[in-house]
UniProtKB/TrEMBL annotation:
<protein>
    <submittedName>
        <fullName>Lmo0937 family membrane protein</fullName>
    </submittedName>
</protein>
<keyword id="KW-1133">Transmembrane helix</keyword>
<keyword id="KW-0472">Membrane</keyword>
<dbReference type="Pfam" id="PF18919">
    <property type="entry name" value="DUF5670"/>
</dbReference>
<dbReference type="InterPro" id="IPR043727">
    <property type="entry name" value="Lmo0937-like"/>
</dbReference>
<feature type="transmembrane region" description="Helical">
    <location>
        <begin position="26"/>
        <end position="43"/>
    </location>
</feature>
<keyword id="KW-0812">Transmembrane</keyword>
């Protein structure tokens, strides 16, 4: 679930860099949050 959110945020970041240069700083903050969430999930592993 979190990896899906991270992927969506990454795609939005790419769109922000290409299309919306004005909101680049906000999109970068969102990208950092997505990377942190992805790393946390990676190190925790899946709980069954």
């Amino acid at each position: 679930m979190l990896m899906t959110i991270a992927l969506i945020l990454f795609v939005l970041w790419l769109l922000g860099v290409v299309v919306f240069k004005v909101t680049g700083a906000v999109i970068h903050v969102v990208l950092i949050a997505a990377v942190v969430i992805g790393l946390v999930q990676l190190f925790r592993g899946r709980r069954v």
